[in-house]
Design goal:
This protein is mainly alpha-helical and about 375 residues long. It has helices at about 1-10, 15-20, 25-50, 55-75, 80-95, 95-110, 115-145, 145-170, 190-220, 230-245, 245-275, 280-305, 315-340, 345-365, 370-375. Pfam families: MFS_1. It is found in: Cell membrane. Keywords: Cell membrane, Membrane, Sugar transport, Transmembrane, Transmembrane helix, Transport.
């Protein structure tokens, strides 16, 4: 429900500011920067709160209510400064729900003695499924009824998400790692955790660069039909979900770092091939390769980062989610600059470069040192 609801709002932001409010494109970046900064601060605060023993339900409810309020504000007040100063802040806090849910999933898997890697994969599968449906549904609704009705509809969807949360998430559920971040205690610096986020940043940013450029690259430079990007994305998401399901088995064979390296290599190969694509058939076939590399990345990356701080899953997950948001922001900015000065096809090479850099960092890293908390937790 969270992925379906939040993804429904994702494709409307730039469209709303440029077409709905009649503002110049640079103002889209201003809103994105405010929202990402608030999200990073929220993830940091929520991650520490989880590790200090704050019930996850309180944090999740806070995020959902802020998200629903942001959607209501956008539907009611069609003013840019309201979006920038109020709605973007509310939506930034609402984005903290993703980090809370992933932390909740990790802790729940540990407490119920489930396979952590496989359970994390289930969560990522639900995220992918939500993104398969949400953006297409909201854009279809916008095409018929406009922005106001669409934003109000997403707010109603958020209300359903809120009710689902009330009934499903246990009110007293909290971390079982006692005193990992006691109030007043200095937080130890974890270089391994920070380093683990670097390849996640580069591979994730490469994906965003390509997704941002893909629609215009396919239509204006490859001369394909307008729906080509949608078809390719559908193929990608379908393959991605299937691949995530089998990632636990892959990890047992080649390890987490090995799986991440494989994702990086496959990603670089995909970007090199899609750069030379010429037909719709090429695009659809390569969409499967896109789903293969990103499915491996999505299915492994969260567990890969979390395992560098097994006794502080809240902080580790907040690092992971924040890294994805920063990668998304940098990816979008890179797409704009490269496409403006060169071409959308060139952005594909930039995306491939990001993937390769991520792979090089992984090659220079060592496997995480097995720690006692990780053994008892898993």
């Amino acid at each position: 429900m969270g992925a379906l609801t939040s993804s429904s709002a994702a494709p409307l932001g730039g469209l709303y500011i440029i077409e709905g409010l009649g503002e110049p494109p640079w103002k889209v970046s201003m809103v994105a920067i405010v929202q990402v900064v608030v999200t990073l601060l929220t993830n940091r605060a929520f991650g520490r709160a989880i590790d200090r023993g704050v019930p996850v339900k309180a944090l999740l409810v806070t995020s959902i209510l802020c998200f629903a309020s942001g959607m209501t504000v956008l539907g009611t007040f069609q003013l840019y400064w309201v979006y920038l100063c109020i709605a973007s802040i509310l939506l930034g806090i609402g984005s903290g729900a993703l980090s809370v849910m992933y932390s909740f999933g990790r802790l729940f898997a540990e407490q119920t003695e489930r396979d952590v890697v496989r359970f994390n994969g289930y969560l990522r599968m639900q995220t992918s499924l939500g993104w398969m449906i949400g953006p297409a549904a909201s854009l279809s609704l916008f095409g018929v009824f406009g922005f106001t009705i669409t934003y109000y509809s997403i707010a109603v969807l958020a209300s359903i998400w809120f009710v689902v949360c009330l009934f499903i998430v246990p009110g007293a559920f909290k971390t079982h790692h006692p005193g990992s971040l006691k109030t007043g205690r200095k937080i130890p610096f974890n270089f391994g955790l920070l380093l683990a986020c670097v390849p996640v940043f580069f591979i994730g940013a490469g994906n965003v660069v390509f997704l941002s450029a893909m629609p215009l690259y396919f239509t204006t430079e490859l001369g394909l039909i307008a729906s080509a990007a949608g078809f390719a994305l559908t193929v990608k998401c379908f393959v991605e979900v299937v691949v995530i399901y089998f990632c636990a088995t892959l990890i047992k064979k080649i390890g987490e770092r090995g799986g991440m390296i494989l994702a990086s290599v496959l990603g670089a190969i995909f970007f090199g091939l899609i750069y030379n694509a010429t037909s719709l058939g090429d695009v659809l076939v390569l969409g499967a390769l896109d789903g293969l590399y990103y499915g491996i990345f999505a299915g492994i990356s969260m567990t890969f980062v979390q395992n560098f701080a097994p006794d502080r899953p809240g902080v580790a997950t907040s690092y992971y989610v924040s890294t994805l948001f920063i990668g998304g922001l940098v990816g979008n900015l890179a797409t704009g600059f490269v496409a403006t000065w060169f071409s959308f096809q060139t952005t594909v090479l930039v995306a491939g470069g990001f993937a390769l850099v991520g792979g090089l960092v992984l090659l220079m890293m060592r496997d995480r040192t097995t720690q006692k908390p990780a053994q008892t937790a898993v």
